[in-house]
Specification:
It is built from 3 helices and 9 strands. With about 170 residues, the protein is mainly beta. Strands 1, 2, 3, 4, 5, 6, 7, 8 and 9 form a 9-stranded mixed beta sheet that branches.
Length: about 170
């Protein structure tokens, strides 16, 4: 067994915060899988924080196994993102790695409604498929918001994005 303590690459610096996150883009029939934590008023792509000494791909494999409780195949890196935004009164600098993934055909799929629920770190996670072409991602307040347009036109090669939130 590994005796090394786990440390997420997530640390505060005064009123600011740095976060390193790996996220999954799971698409099926022009729908993307999103996750809502507890009673949050927004959704995000599945994934989580990268641990110190762990690659973003390893982190995503670990997070998906914990959250989806389903095998997945990590594909190519679609986006690297430098995202600057405000959350809970802190200015956040987030580095994100967004990978295309494949889920097995046995992973539940239906349009509308929660298809999978689990608990992670004391939070209830709710997963659903949302149409990327309609207004569902905007209605559910997908974060980061700029990903709505990115999901509608996935790139042929990895793209690097830099995004600054304009207000608190």
């Amino acid at each position: 067994m590994n005796d090394v303590a786990r440390h997420m690459v997530h640390f505060p610096v005064g009123s600011r915060l740095f976060n390193y996150r790996a996220a999954a883009i799971a698409m099926r029939d022009r729908h993307v899988l999103v996750c809502r934590e507890g009673e949050d008023d927004y959704v995000m792509l599945p994934g989580g924080r990268v641990e110190l000494g762990e690659s973003s791909m390893e982190a995503l494999e670990r997070e998906l196994a914990e959250e989806l409780q389903s095998p997945s195949t990590i594909g190519r890196l679609a986006y690297t993102v430098e995202n600057f935004f405000f959350h809970d009164g802190k200015q956040v600098h987030e580095l994100g790695a967004y990978y295309l993934i494949d889920l097995p055909a046995t992973f539940p799929f239906r349009r509308g409604g929660v298809v999978h629920q689990t608990e992670d770190a004391g939070l209830r996670l709710h997963f659903e498929w949302v149409d990327v072409d309609g207004g569902g991602l905007l209605e559910r307040h997908l974060r980061p918001r700029f990903m709505i347009d990115q999901l509608r036109r996935l790139p042929e090669a990895t793209e690097h994005l830099i995004f600054h939130e304009r207000h608190k």
